[in-house]
């Protein structure tokens, strides 16, 4: 039997960023002991592994809540369809399209609340980096400079992946390189307040998190 509810994420960038974002919203993962309703944030080892083990995670939950956060950086609908197929095998009623506020449902067979959030906002294709971009002040001149510098770097032979997610990662890391403590990973940068915590998307994510876990 799982000791806690679980939030399943793809990897360490996701787990660290989410932990620090929640802490900034008053769900303090630095507290000891952790409140009983706080889920363990577990890294699945990539989106394929997260999807492959989703049914097992719910079946093994012993009545505790299970949440899943995964990227939708190829096709939002295809990612939701892949998760939907697994959820329906667990006797969950799910809509054909991901709810904008994130999915929360109940499996009567396994007595488990199940939540799904597709990064960045359940409405666009994207990943963690798209979510983090919403936490940068729109008036910050460095982010536009990072975009221009990253594009120029490509012209000079930079070898970051030439796709949307690769470009966004390169831009964010360039921007992070120019902060007071250069080059912090995402979670540490949220804790250092280089990123904001209060964008509308972040607020919706925290609300979804509470719906999944706080009443479980």
Would you give an account of this structure?
The chain has 216 residues and is α/β, with parallel strands linked by helices. The chain folds into two domains: 6-126 and 198-213, Rossmann fold, CATH 3.40.50; 136-188, no CATH class. It is 43% helix and 12% strand. It has nine helices and five strands. It has helices at residues 12-24, 47-52, 54-59, 76-88, 128-133, 141-155, 164-177, 186-191, 200-213; strands spanning 6-9, 40-43, 66-71, 103-107, 112-119. A five-stranded mixed sheet has the order 2-1-3-5-4, with helices on both faces. The protein is globular and about 55 Å long. The two termini are 15 Å apart. The model has no long low-confidence stretch (mean pLDDT 95).
Furnish the topology, listing elements before pairings.
Blueprint: E1 6-9, H1 12-24, E2 40-43, H2 47-52, H3 54-59, E3 66-71, H4 76-88, E4 103-107, E5 112-119, H5 128-133, H6 141-155, H7 164-177, H8 186-191, H9 200-213
Parallel strand pairs: 1-2, 1-3, 3-5
Antiparallel strand pairs: 4-5
Helix pairs in contact: 6-7
């Amino acid at each position: 039997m799982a000791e806690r509810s679980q939030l399943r994420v793809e990897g360490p960038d996701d787990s660290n960023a989410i932990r620090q974002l929640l802490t900034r919203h008053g769900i303090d993962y630095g507290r000891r002991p952790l409140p009983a309703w706080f889920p363990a944030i577990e890294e699945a080892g990539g989106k394929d592994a997260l999807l492959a083990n989703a049914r097992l995670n719910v079946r093994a939950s012993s009545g505790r809540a299970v949440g899943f956060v995964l990227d939708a950086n190829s096709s939002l609908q295809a990612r939701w369809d892949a998760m939907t197929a697994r959820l329906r095998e667990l006797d969950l009623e799910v809509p054909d399209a991901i709810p904008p506020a994130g999915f929360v449902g109940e499996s009567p067979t396994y007595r488990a609340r199940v939540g799904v959030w597709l990064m960045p906002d359940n409405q666009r294709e994207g990943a963690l980096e798209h979510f983090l971009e919403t936490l940068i002040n729109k008036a910050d001149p460095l982010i536009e400079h990072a975009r221009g510098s990253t594009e120029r770097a490509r012209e000079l032979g930079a070898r970051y992946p030439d796709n949307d997610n690769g470009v966004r990662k390169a831009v964010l890391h360039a921007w992070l390189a120019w902060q007071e403590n250069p080059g912090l990973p995402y979670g540490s940068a949220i804790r250092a307040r280089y990123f904001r915590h209060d964008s509308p998307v972040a607020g919706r994510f925290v609300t979804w998190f509470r719906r999944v876990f706080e009443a479980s």
